[in-house]
Amino acid sequence: MDLVPPIDPPGSWGPPDASGQVRVVSSRPELQCWEHGCNGQPFSNISNLLRHQREKSGVAAKATCSKCGAEFTRTTARNKHLNRCKKMDTQPS
Q1: What's the alpha-carbon Rg for the chain, to the nearest Å?
Q2: Which residues lie in Pro residues bias regions (predicted)?
Q3: Under DSSP, is residue 23 helix (H, G, I), strand (E, B) or coil?
Q4: Which residues of the chain have pLDDT under 70?
Q5: Rounded to 5 degrees, what angle do the CA atoms 16, 19, 21 make?
Q6: Same domain (yes/no): 70, 44
Q7: Do both 92 and 68 map to the same domain?
Q8: What's the rounded Cα separation, in Å, for the pair 4 and 84?
Q9: Shortest CA distance to 30 belongs to which of 16, 20, 40?
Q10: For position 60, what pLDDT does the model report?
Q11: pTM for this one?
């Protein structure tokens, strides 16, 4: 009785090297943005790439500073700005 090795997906294994060992080849595509003039900016994970594309395309909602009206693509950036924004703090009451 012959044993049949399991079938692996294409691209998951490379050819044997000089020692006869099979080497694993990564088939994961590189995460890069080629739109918006980004020229292939790399991203570490798909979530970061998708957020970047939403922000650059204008689909993401803007967060606005209630003191000076500045717009931000991320609420965390707006919140940091609010702690330092002096626009309304310096106006006379």
Answers
A1: 25
A2: 1-13
A3: strand
A4: 1-18, 20, 22-23, 26, 88-93
A5: 45
A6: no
A7: yes
A8: 67
A9: 40
A10: 86
A11: 0.54
* Domain of 47, in residue numbers: 31-60
Encode 3-16: b = buried (16+ Cβ within 10 Å), e = exposed: eeeeeeeeeeeeee
Residues 50 and 68 in one domain: no
Structure confidence at residue 29 (pLDDT):
81
Residue 21 belongs to a domain = no
Contact call for residues 14 and 26 (beta carbons, < 8 A): no
Work out how many domains the chain is built from and give that number. 2
Q: What is the pLDDT of residues 49-68, one digit of tens each?
A: 999 999 999 888 899 999 99
Residue ranges of E strands in the chain? 13-16, 22-24, 32-33, 41-42, 63-64, 71-72
Is residue 15 assigned to a domain?
no
Give the C-alpha separation, 10 to 27, whole Å: 9
